[in-house]
Amino acid sequence: MQYINIYSVTFLIWTFAFLMLGHVKVGNCIIGKSKNFDKLAVMTFVLIFGSMIAFRAESVGTDTRYYNQLFKNLVGVDYIWNFHEFWKYPVYSVIGRLLSFVSKDPQIMVAFTGFFIVGANAFFIYRMSRDVMLSLYLYVVLDLYMFAFNITRQNFAMAVILLAYLRFEDSRPKQGIALIFLAMGCHSLGILGFAMVPLFVIKNQKKMRQIYLCGSFLFAAVGIRLATLFVRIFSFYTLSSSSGFSFFEADSSGNRMYTAFLILAIEGVGLYLFRVHEWSEEDRLKFSRLASISNIALFSMIFMRHYYAFARAERFFLQFVVVLIPLILSYVHKKNNYRIIKYMLAAVLFLPYVTKLYHYLPYANFWN
């Protein structure tokens, strides 16, 4: 019982409560189909699950204690450029310095990053998803939420990349590029954000999917060499994490490959529906972009599943799957079939999530 985390139990209660509420009728209107319901789901998700990350003790997360100490070191210097880690992640350091004027307690940085990460993901889902509840559920069971308790700077950069994608979607490419550079200023892996730029440059959708498919295979084929080159270029990027993981450590779990094949199967269904149903031009373009960027993560999960480094890098692309899947399922026209597929998918993806729960530390608040 000690491994049943409070946030896992809360997630289940929240999910089932909203699933039940989503099918309640008020007059002739199903609550779950209203935009106000989506807003309520997103706001409560950010409030509850953002709070769990924001108010965690420094014992929760692989590097929380490490970054708390860095915040104290940052507060202790007269000028920010004297901070020994400033040039490694300048944007993140500036944010910490600004927050230090509000409070010298490192918990303020934990709280800010926690709410920002969950809030940015929830906002992205609200803007992009055809089924907000399903996307929020996927955000958790695909381990993206749990990952946010660890490796704080990378998760912060990933959240910024999502906001950059929205800027590209809104035809604001300069703002999108600026946000990618901001992400790089938080974590060097933010450079992966440039992988989504061609999505908004290539006009031919079929050509786009083919290029990214070939690129995904190439990434999987020469991944180790790319990682080695990355470490040489970013010499300050250590070969191990603060929790002791080797950059090339083997991941013996088959969950990543299992999940990847399942998502690829859903994507295959999407390609079938793409051909047999009339998709709007907007949805066709959205599918091509999301599938193309997601495939980078999926092929990495299959072919580079033995290496910890790629489990980290692929999450920059995996986060787009949470809106891709609802888009595909929205073209399952029969309502009963849609519900059956949706709940079967939720159950199947929940299995690998459950098997990983014992890896996580029991939850504790910072005031305990």
Indicate the proportion of strand residues. Answer: under 5%
Count the DSSP helices. Answer: 17
Basic shape = globular
Order of helices and strands: HEEHHHHHHHHHHHHHHHH
Distance between the termini: 20 Å
Helix content: 55-70%
Tell me the number of strands: 2
> What oligomeric state is this?
single chain
Largest sheet: 2 strands, antiparallel
Structural class: mainly alpha
Mean pLDDT: 79
The main sheet orders its strands as 1-2
Radius of gyration: 20 Å
Low-pLDDT stretches are 238-253
Question: How are the elements arranged and paired?
Answer:
Blueprint: H1 6-22, E1 25-26, E2 29-30, H2 35-54, H3 64-76, H4 90-100, H5 107-128, H6 132-141, H7 144-147, H8 152-169, H9 173-184, H10 205-221, H11 223-233, H12 255-276, H13 281-303, H14 308-313, H15 315-318, H16 321-329, H17 335-355
Antiparallel strand pairs: 1-2
Helix pairs in contact: 1-2, 2-5, 5-6, 5-8, 6-16, 6-17, 8-9, 10-13, 12-13, 12-16, 13-16
